[in-house]
Amino acid sequence: MKFRPFIALSLQTVVAFLALGGSAYSLVWLEGRREAEPLPRAGFWNETAPIVVVDAGHGGHDGGAVANGVIEKNMSLDIANRLKKELEAAGVRVVMTRSGDRFLTLDERAAMAGTHEAAAFVSVHLNTDGEGSGAEGIETYFAESKGLAARQLVSAGEGRTEGDGAEFARTVQRLVCGATQAENRGIKAREYAVVARAACPAVLVECGFITSASESVRLKQAGYRDKVADGIARGVVLFLQSRAARPGVIAAAAK
Ligand SMILES: [Zn+2]
User: Fold this and answer.
1) pLDDT of 122-171, one tens digit each?
2) pLDDT tens-digit readout, 101-128
3) Of 19, 128, 184, 243, which residue has the fewest beta carbons closer than 10 angstroms?
């Protein structure tokens, strides 16, 4: 009987080691900033790959912002499509809220997180400021308090907590700014409906200012939009993989 605590500890240590090892490995892999480095291919998740809802902002009669020849609904869909491709290459399953020029309410978009039991929700938008403004850069929003429907789904779900939005936003913001070298405007808590009502960790990425003369030129280049999509995808995958490593198990084993 004296062996039991030792055996239990060993098992926990092995589990923690595997979890930490996987986590450290993905950190090294995902945070390499060499452009030629591809996202990790499938293999981390197999058939249990998480579902990510990718939401292209606006659509249909709602064009979003217009500046410097850019219509937000078109560019958000373009970046969302690139993001889908990157995520799928990393082995993640993707559900798009819209794949064409279609209007959806914010509730319809957010509800898709619950319908598909998504592990994460990413809304893609472009930012604006006053005419002649020099504001530029990328910022990522999360909701501090989830709506009632989202809270109920979260409490019914396994291991999904409300506090994950900030961590998710921080990870995405860091990696998308690393990939694009855009000005890092930080993460911001705001109760945007689409983020607050999604029943999973959710972020809204403002991918740059179309009102900025210089940033709008960059955003019009497909190569730059690829970098934006690549950076967001890296952030999403890193966040999901770090959660898959189950910090709770690591904490228990460390005792
Ligand atoms: Zn927008």
Assistant:
1) 999 999 998 778 899 999 999 987 765 565 555 554 444 446 899 999 99
2) 999 999 999 999 999 999 999 999 999 9
3) 184
Mean pLDDT, range 42-68, rounded to an integer? 90
Distance 114 CA to ligand 1 centre (A): 22
Question: Residues within 5 Å of ion ligand 1 by Cβ?
Answer: 57, 64, 125
For the chain, the residue count is 255
* In contact, 250 and 19? CB cutoff 8 Å: yes
Q: Where do the domains of the chain lie?
A: 44-236
Residue 64 CA to ligand 1 centre (angstroms) = 5
Domain covering 44-236: architecture: 3-Layer(aba) Sandwich (3.40)
Ligand 1 center to 205 CA (angstroms) = 9
Nearest in space to 226 (alpha carbons), one of 248, 254, 207: 207
